Amino acid sequence: MHAIEKILAGHCGRAEVHTGEIVTARVDFAEINDLYLQTVYSFYEMGGEKVWDNTRCAFVFDHYAPCPDIKSASNHREMREFALKNQLTHHFDINTGVCHQVMAEAGLITPGMIVVATDSHTTTHGAFGAMGTGCGATDMATILMTGELWFRVPEIIEVRLEGEAPAGVFPKDVALAVLGRIRADGAVYKAVDFTGSYVEGLNVAGRMTICNMAVEMGAKTAYMQPNQDVLDYVAARAERPYEVVYTDPGYEYTESYVFDVSALEPQLACPSSVENVHSLASVTAEGMVRIDQGYIGSCTGGREEDLAAAARILKGRHIAPYTRLVVVPASAEVMRSCMAKGYLADLMEAGATIVTPGCGACLGAHEGVLAPGEVCITATNRNFPGRMGSTGAKMYLASPATVAASMITGTITDPRPYL
Question: Does residue 201 lie within any of the structural domains?
Answer without folding.
Answer: yes
